[in-house]
Amino acid sequence: FENLSFEGVTVAVHSDINDVDQTVYVPEIKTTLVSKDTDSHIAPCDKEITLIDTVTYSNLVVGKTYVMYGTLMNKDTNDVVKDSEGNPITAGITFVATTSNGSVEVKFTVNGELLKGKTIVVFEDVYYEDVLVGIHADINDESQTIYFPEITTAASVSGKSTFEPKDEIELTDIITYKISTGFEALWGY
Q1: CA dist., res. 79 & res. 32, Å (int)
Q2: How far apart are the C-alpha atoms of 11 and 2, rounded to whole Å?
Q3: Alpha helices per DSSP H over 14-130
Q4: Distance CA 158, CA 59 (A)
Q5: Do 148 and 176 meet the contact criterion of CB atoms below 8 Å apart?
């Protein structure tokens, strides 16, 4: 709202709450990242998997075109996650806001084998006409975090990896797993 004064006297006022020309929208975004395969914050370590980041937004201008970009981050190092060729893993979607408040999905296709034992967090940016208008980049936000468990196994017979063939043996398989401590806190294990 604007007021114009002359020698202490208000001579003009512009205070129209519905005036589009004097309205500024401050977008806000929040994200929830899940594995398409598990529909949870735990992802399989398969060669090709899809991660779906549902980005909920508010205060966008209806009818305007926006671009939502996501970048995968390594929670332990706070570095951008890179693919096997050294390129940052990113994804994006262009959309027209049909409502001021809504959501879009940003889909990442990644090699889960490269992420074994890692905790990944997605950071999101929303742009309007190449101008950054919203960001959600919280490395500690559990909603935008996904875990890639890793297991190893060691089988033995009486503590040895070789044995004499007999009619009956007892095979012991020790399985070791690695999951981020954040996962344990999240699920209460």
Answers
A1: 20
A2: 11
A3: none
A4: 65
A5: no
Task: Please list the alpha-helical segments (H only) found in the chain.
Answer: 181-187
CB-neighbour burial class of residue 127 (10 A; exposed 0-12, middle 13-18, buried 19+): middle
Total residue length of the chain: 189
Task: Please provide the DSSP assignment of 136-170 as one string.
Answer: E--TT-GGGEEE--EEEEEEEETTBS-----S---
The per-residue pLDDT of the chain, averaged, comes to: 86
DSSP 18: T
Q: What is the pTM of this model?
A: 0.75
CA torsion through residues 41, 49, 136, 56, sign: negative
**What is the C-alpha to C-alpha distance for residues 102 and 125, in angstroms, rounded to an integer?**
15
Is 51 in contact with 34 (CB distance < 8 Å)?
Answer: yes
| Residue given tokens 């890639």 in the structure block | 148
What does the DSSP 8-state code read for residue 62? T
Tokens 């960001």, residue?
135
User: Which pLDDT score, from 0 to 100, does residue 189 have?
Assistant: 37
Task: Give the Cα separation of 61 and 101 in Å (integer).
Answer: 9
Euclidean distance between CA atoms 162 and 169, whole angstroms: 12
pLDDT at 65: 97
Task: Find out whether 56 and 103 touch, Cβ atoms under 8 Å.
Answer: yes
